[in-house]
């Protein structure tokens, strides 16, 4: 699960990434890395700004 979470994180799909880190935590609830990354995904998902290239 953590591999999928990492892939989605790299694609900046923080919602899906967070869900997969949550699933990874169900398998290994004491894993601090998964907890931190899940929290980071939640924070990033709520603060992502869409940036567009200005037109000439």
UniProtKB/TrEMBL annotation:
<protein>
    <recommendedName>
        <fullName>Tetratricopeptide repeat protein</fullName>
    </recommendedName>
</protein>
<dbReference type="Pfam" id="PF00515">
    <property type="entry name" value="TPR_1"/>
</dbReference>
<dbReference type="InterPro" id="IPR011990">
    <property type="entry name" value="TPR-like_helical_dom_sf"/>
</dbReference>
<dbReference type="InterPro" id="IPR019734">
    <property type="entry name" value="TPR_rpt"/>
</dbReference>
